[in-house]
Amino acid sequence: MTASKRKKLLAGNWKMNMRLAEIEPFFTAFSAALRPGVSNHVDILFAAPFTQLHATLAATRARGFAAAAQNMHFEASGAFTGEVSAMMLTDIGIRTTLVGHSERRQYFAETDDSVAKKTITAISNAVTPVVCVGETLEERKSGATFQVVSHQLGAVLNALKNHGPVQNREGFYPGDLSDSIVIAYEPVWAIGTGLSATLEQAQEVHGFIRKVCDEILGSEFAVRARILYGGSANPANIAGLLSQPDIDGGLVGGASLKAADFAAMCNAAMS
Ligand code: PGA
Predict the structure, then answer these.
(1) Which of 103, 139, 186, 206 is catalytic?
(2) With a threshold of 0.85, does the pTM exceed it?
């Protein structure tokens, strides 16, 4: 499968932003700035805080976009105060979640092990995990980027491989695992800093990620899996990023809070 066959995915990560009253006005402005037909060619997704998911879901459904959670727990239920399960997400119609965002790893003790468990639980419940990986500045400076990324990604892909067929009500896997998981490369030093990776740096790691996918889950998965870039992606750099052969979309933080900016990025993904 060539890069052009993988449908582009632009995912906004609102983080802990967007009050309820801001949601409808955001989508009104966003839709108005979107070129006609973009959502037929580009998957557009918004990862909202739990309490905003109902409203985000209603607003996105009505317009042909999708809503996602930013996290979930790997257990089905139990004594996990403050957590939300995959089934609770599907109860309200959420079918995608971020998993292992670097802010979860950094501030909330998310580990490779919990990310792997969440990935399997998500897929088992027909929730698509957007699995985030990426190195810190120190790791990049010390030449450990590939090692860190392959370790983080390896934990997830090997867990999937060792788990064997994941049954879910839609029979996604082993049918087509590449439709059931999205990978996001987010260099930690580029997140929220205004300092995006260069096109060369981003493509180099994306190509490497596809190689790791190939090694662990095989070439069919590797050629089909979508790999998003995240880290200070914006309207000025998105077209260049998306022109790279192994970059299939963006996970966008700051710029996804500005309706016109994010719409411009989605428009760029269509051309
Ligand atoms: P940013 O965030 O676009 O603001 O750098 C990206 C992310 O954390 O997903």
Answers:
(1) 186
(2) yes
